[in-house]
Specification:
This protein is 39% helix and 17% strand. It is an alpha/beta fold.
């Protein structure tokens, strides 16, 4: 198989050094890095351990070397979702967002043929969120990453609509990633928030955006969902059936069959299973499924692009999943990544 041009739309990055945000803002709950040995750091929430990360979480040159080994050419960078900080005071989240966004923009500006950047914005305050969205565009980011809910508010709720409308007007892509999973009190064992909670979070976000009429009202919004759309592809039949038999409950704000939205949004390819990847390609179309790995975390695809490359498809189909769908979602063409 030829060395097909590949773009990973789902990779996370942090600055190597994060200031003491608790001291800066005057209250606790923020993440910092404890560089306890060379090439490794503990992500700490105040004094509580959150996750161990390695240098590929902050060093662009390490990332490029690892991706060269897997023949993947471009990474789309976004922050680690725990950094969203929607729970914090909005002005402080704006300040943190600016710090994170400037970091990503700096990497993109230095290596424009290897990286694309997504910003983060203070979604709890739509006015401030739109202000930072506009700044993200000015500093060269091509979109934003947001969570599947905003402090318990589903994405289809009216108070958030202006943010999505601004994304459409500014031609900014949106990547939606699960975070702060519901039902955590029942998932304290077996890593269940990541195994069970994340797919449910993503499904809730998609369903809310469809049933609220948001996707109908914003047909040019370019939105992608992480982790293969969660459990939505496997439950679209149930969702459609509910829409048909209980329109009094489901069709209140949207009168379009939810199945008709398949192909209107993108998902990444992170499904960990050949049969599921075939299913989502059949459902969505190859031009709506983009390579995504959750790099550099262990629940992601450990050999980026391998599942797509292993499928019994022709090179044209594989290249659509490896880069074509991503290019359309980002509003770019391949010439963007030629040496310049």
């Amino acid at each position: 198989m030829a060395d097909l041009f590949s773009i990973d739309i789902h990779t996370h990055i942090l600055p190597e050094n994060i200031p003491d945000l608790g001291s800066k803002y005057g209250y606790r709950g923020f993440i910092h890095l404890d560089h306890h040995k060379p090439g490794c750091a503990r992500m700490m929430k105040d004094d509580k351990f959150f996750r161990e990360v390695q240098s590929n979480c902050w060093d662009p040159e390490v990332r490029m070397a690892e991706y060269d080994a897997h023949h993947v050419h471009v990474q789309v960078l976004s922050t680690v979702p725990v950094m969203f900080s929607y729970w914090a005071k909005a002005q402080d989240t704006l300040d943190l967002s600016m710090f994170l966004n400037d970091h990503i923009a700096g990497i993109v500006h230095r290596w424009p043929t290897r990286f694309v950047g997504l910003g983060t914005i203070p979604m709890q305050d739509p006015e401030l969120a739109i202000k930072e969205l506009e700044r993200c565009k000015r500093i060269g980011l091509l979109g934003i990453q947001i969570g599947t809910h905003i402090n318990g508010t589903n994405l289809g709720e009216p108070r958030l609509f202006s943010i999505f409308q601004a994304c459409q007007e500014l031609d900014m892509a949106v990547f939606i990633h699960p975070w702060d999973m519901m039902g955590m009190e029942r998932m304290d064992k077996y890593w269940m928030p990541w195994l069970v909670g994340m797919p449910v979070e993503t499904t809730t976000a998609i369903t809310s955006m469809i049933f609220s009429g948001l996707m109908q009202r914003l047909p040019k919004l370019r939105v992608a969902f992480a982790h293969g759309g969660g459990s939505f592809p496997a439950t679209i039949g149930r969702i459609e059936h509910g829409f048909q038999v209980r329109p009094d409950l489901c069709a209140v704000d949207n009168n379009v069959n939810p199945r008709e939205y398949l192909g209107r949004f993108w998902i990444d390819s992170l499904v960990h299973d050949p049969a599921m990847l075939q299913l989502v390609v059949d459902q969505m179309g190859a031009n709506r499924v983009a390579l995504g790995t959750d790099y550099p975390f262990p629940l992601g695809e450990l050999e980026p692009g391998q599942l797509i490359k292993s499928m019994p498809w022709d090179d044209a189909t594989k290249e659509m999943l490896l880069s074509g769908a991503a290019l359309e979602w980002m509003g770019l063409d391949r010439a963007h990544f030629k040496a310049r």
